[in-house]
Sequence to fold (239 residues):
Amino acid sequence: MQCRQCAAELDRPGDYCLVCHTANADVVVLELDRERARVTTIDDEEILGRRVVTTTPETGELNGVELRNFAGQIVDEVHRKRPEEVYVTGDRTVIDAVRAQLHYECYRVEGNDPVERVIERRGEPALEVVEASAAEKIGGTHSTLIGDRDGKRAIETVAGHPHVKKIIPGPIDASGSSARGGVRAKATRADQGGNVRLLIRDGSSVQENRVVTTAGDRELGEHVRADLNEALREADLAE
Fold:
């Protein structure tokens, strides 16, 4: 493949051109399994190429080294493209290892054909990004937050998402059954307007918080919800 700007030969389809410093792809989709990763490069709605990276999982002390090396090979494939967006799906362990090394914001994508789903979404309007700090997004008549430090951390994790406009804490209900495992949080199914509820549980107490997003409908709200739950998992706060 040649660079679309200067026609220089590229080593792989969609590579960033080091001659004229031009990107030749705008999206990379990562389908990640524990032993195999498929990296698909897309420009506009055209698939430019696919590359498969494989590994053989190790046991014991070598497992961590092998996983980091596997993730590093995947990350190298992304860096070659310098895309505008990166979408991921698959094994959570591999996703976490890749995110630890990747200097791009990753968006979750679901479905039987993640690549096709990403291409379908290319024509959809981009969600507005909210630049306000997490503290500025939290407001409402109920100022008390459940779960002390971990409850506050769950709220701040969700508030830190770029597509969250505001979080309105709700009243605390202490009539539920006791749950183990400390503070747990979950973003619920999006409503017709693309907004979600953040449920935070601490023992027998539950607080339902309204999360206003920049999504304009349920489908886009579901993508935001998936991102929020993934962020809560990464913070070890998910139900």
In short: The chain has a mean pLDDT of 89.
